[in-house]
């Protein structure tokens, strides 16, 4: 059987999701038994979420409705409304100091996850129609990016903003935006970052903890220190699947943002390289799908979405191994979370949907 980009793309996504369930079982079972005694274990919930995510994938991948520009304009507006609603007391839910969720009965959703997708998709359609980057056009593009970024920062959720901004820059670069604009934006970004640190001192604490986590090993540097204690002794092959030590209440919520620490602790450097290879195959096959498209809007959309997932994975792994300050970003496909998993598979479905656009659709 010929292994096409499409098969490789879906297979790598599926393998990463299965790896996620396996390590959620290993990393989260003890934490679940202590903090959520009597409730359904994390790995069973994640398995159910994966089934639901695959139903979403099959449905969305075959809907022509998602190939239309007006669909993404509508979804972009809806996602902005949801970002406003999440800030209203009684509607928005606070978790870990961030009001980023909306609860509807037992279900919760994070509007920032949706707005990252809708912004990139709306921008992809706009860029495909631009013939010259006049100032008015440039202002419109940057407003489309900055409005959701501003609303997300009110939650606050710096990690989501960082992912959206970098993914948008990749999209603008691919669309051959004037290079001189990047210089001014980078300068503004640095000024904005300094302003964010001044207005929220905890971000400075995170940077200080990143530079020297051992200065406050029981406070701001706790997660970083525990992650390094998991990774350091693991060596080439790790302690073996299920034999992590840090998951026994040393590393907080080990099934979430820092699950890659447990992966490295249990299957070592070589096992970690296998996970990185799967992400590499996912990105490679995704770009391959983009290269096979004939419409610029399809190309821009696929490249931006693949970049978004790839950068989020790099950001999470960078935090875990101590290369980047803690940002609270999950590892795509692998970290525990129903909303996160279904959103990721929704993105996979959109990519497949655009990659198989036929001449009749055009």
Please, could you describe this protein's structure?
By secondary structure, the chain is mostly helical. Helix content is 67%, strand content 4%. It has 12 helices and 3 strands; from the N terminus they run αααβββααααααααα. Strands 1-2-3 form a 3-stranded antiparallel β-sheet. Helix 2 runs parallel beside helix 12. The radius of gyration is 20 Å and the shape is globular. The protein starts with a helix and ends in a 7-residue tail after the last helix. The model has no long low-confidence stretch (mean pLDDT 85).
Indicate the mean pLDDT.
85
Largest sheet: 3 strands, antiparallel
* Spatial order of the strands forming the largest sheet: 1-2-3
Uncertain ranges: none
Provide the helix percentage: 55-70%
The coarse overall form would be: globular
Radius of gyration: 20 Å
* H/E series: HHHEEEHHHHHHHHH
Q: What distance separates the N and C termini?
A: 29 Å
Beta fraction: under 5%
Secondary-structure-based class equals: mainly alpha
Number of strands: 3
SS summary, helix count: 12
Topology:
Blueprint: H1 5-35, H2 42-61, H3 69-85, E1 92-95, E2 98-104, E3 107-109, H4 111-129, H5 135-153, H6 158-174, H7 179-199, H8 201-211, H9 222-231, H10 259-291, H11 296-320, H12 338-355
Antiparallel strand pairs: 1-2, 2-3
């Amino acid at each position: 059987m010929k292994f096409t980009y499409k098969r490789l793309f879906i297979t790598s996504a599926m393998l990463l999701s299965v790896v996620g369930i396996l390590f959620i079982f290993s990393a989260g079972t003890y934490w679940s038994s202590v903090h959520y005694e009597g409730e359904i274990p994390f790995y069973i919930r994640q398995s159910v979420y994966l089934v639901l995510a695959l139903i979403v994938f099959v449905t969305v991948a075959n809907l022509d409705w998602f190939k239309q520009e007006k669909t993404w304009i509508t979804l972009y507006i809806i996602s902005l409304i949801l970002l406003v609603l999440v800030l209203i007391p009684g509607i928005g839910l606070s978790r870990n100091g961030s009001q980023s969720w909306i609860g509807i009965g037992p279900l919760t959703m994070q509007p920032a996850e949706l707005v990252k997708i809708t912004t990139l998709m709306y921008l992809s359609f706009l860029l495909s129609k631009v013939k010259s980057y006049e100032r008015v056009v440039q202002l419109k593009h940057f407003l489309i990016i900055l409005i959701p970024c501003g609303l997300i920062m009110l939650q606050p959720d710096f990690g989501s903003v960082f992912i959206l901004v970098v993914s948008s820059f990749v999209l603008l670069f691919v669309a051959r935006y004037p290079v001189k604009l990047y210089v001014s934006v980078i300068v503004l970004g640095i000024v904005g970052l300094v302003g964010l640190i001044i207005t929220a001192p905890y971000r400075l604490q995170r940077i200080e903890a990143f530079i020297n986590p051992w200065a406050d090993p029981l406070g701001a540097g706790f997660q970083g220190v525990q992650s390094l204690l998991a990774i350091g002794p693991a060596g080439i092959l790790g302690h073996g699947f299920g034999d992590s030590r840090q998951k026994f209440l040393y590393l907080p919520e080990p099934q979430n943002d820092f699950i890659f620490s447990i992966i490295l602790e249990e299957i070592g450097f070589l096992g970690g390289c296998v996970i990185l290879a799967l992400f590499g195959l996912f990105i490679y096959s995704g770009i391959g799908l983009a290269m096979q498209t004939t419409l610029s809007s399809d190309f821009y959309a696929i490249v931006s979405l693949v970049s978004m997932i790839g950068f989020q994975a790099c950001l999470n792994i960078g935090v875990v191994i101590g290369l980047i300050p803690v940002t609270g970003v999950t590892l795509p496909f692998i970290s525990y979370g129903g909303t996160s998993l279904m959103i990721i598979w929704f993105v996979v479905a959109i990519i497949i949907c655009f990659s198989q656009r036929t001449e009749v659709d055009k």
